[in-house]
Design a protein that fits this description.
By secondary structure, the protein is mostly helical. It has 2 domains: about 5-150, Fumarate Reductase Iron-sulfur Protein, Chain B, domain 2 (Orthogonal Bundle); about 175-260, no CATH class. Helix content is about 45%, strand content about 5%. The protein has helices at about 5-10, 15-25, 35-40, 50-60, 65-75, 80-85, 90-105, 155-160, 165-170, 190-200, 225-240, 245-260; strands at about 115-120, 145-150. It has a two-stranded parallel sheet. The longest helix is centred in the last third of the chain and has 17 residues, at about 245-260. The radius of gyration is 21 Å and the shape is globular.
Length: about 280
């Protein structure tokens, strides 16, 4: 597919990624054979090919999405059946995720039309535990759409994307134990993984909601007993190593190692194919 993004637009990594995906599409229509919304509704715009055209037009023209575009992209079930039949290897998953993120930033919805559920991890590493992009949309009705959001990025990358926002810096709260009534106790596992992520990003000092010292010795008492926990701590380990923070990486690596043993996994196991 021919695209016409400007050099200024392609300087945005997300637009550059979308451009590469769009250019792989050859309009063959094989995707329509496995798309459930197209099979039921028979509307080209409710097929992956039709949605690709809508996304291309929206992104190339850098325009706010209209109601028609939003309706057809919202109808996508994210089942990804289309990707199983695409002979060109179009990464529709990443394209529609980017389109949805763009829509949420630029389109004002009526109140209570759509509910977003924050995913635990990114799509590559998501495990069938609690939240799942394969079933969350099944909670939807004709009047309310339930959509899982945030799956384009892992835990630390999502944290990186919000750390500069002044409201986030003033109010970020992750603690569920709240020892002694603390806003964030700075000792539970959720506080520790967030504090280590902020430390790896070099911004922990900008978050007054985490006033306590980062006590890495507490990780020696922690255990990982679920795959979802291992995925998130591996993500945190990658961030610490990328930042060159051996002081953070070493205790996290030991925790991850114990988690693999608890789950019966070999030491070489990785929840994702490559870091990033």
């Amino acid at each position: 597919m021919q695209t016409n993004f400007t050099l200024a637009q392609l300087a945005d990594p997300d637009i550059a990624e979308a451009n590469g995906i769009l250019r792989n599409c050859v309009h063959c229509g094989f995707c329509t054979a496995t798309c459930p919304t197209y099979q039921v509704l028979g509307d080209e715009l409710d097929s992956p090919r039709g949605r690709i055209y809508l996304i291309k037009d929206m992104l190339e023209n850098d325009r706010d999405p209209d109601e028609k575009t939003v309706k057809h992209i919202d109808r996508c079930l994210s089942c990804l059946a289309c990707m199983t039949t695409c002979p060109s290897g179009v990464h529709y998953m990443h394209l529609v995720d980017h389109a949805r993120e763009y829509i949420e930033q630029t389109y004002r919805r009526p109140m209570f039309e759509r509910v977003l559920i924050a995913s635990d991890t990114d799509h590559e590493t998501q495990v069938p535990s609690g939240i799942s992009r394969l079933v969350d949309h099944l909670w939807s009705s004709e009047r309310l759409e339930v959509v899982q959001a945030g799956g384009r990025h892992g835990r630390v990358e999502r944290l990186r994307r919000i750390v500069d926002h002044p409201i986030v810096r003033r109010t970020l709260r992750v603690c569920w134990e709240n020892h002694d009534g603390a806003y964030n106790c700075c000792r539970c596992r959720k506080c520790l993984i967030t504090m280590i992520g902020l430390e790896a990003l070099g911004v922990r000092g900008s978050f007054p909601t985490f006033p306590g010292d980062l006590d890495l010795d507490l990780l020696a008492e922690a255990e990982l007993t679920q795959m979802i926990q291992l995925v998130m701590w591996e993500d945190t380990l990658d961030a610490a190593q990328a930042a060159g923070r051996i002081d953070l990486a070493a205790p996290v690596a030991r925790l991850v190692g114990r988690g693999k043993r608890n789950l019966g996994l070999p030491p070489s196991y990785r929840s994702r194919a490559a870091t990033g």
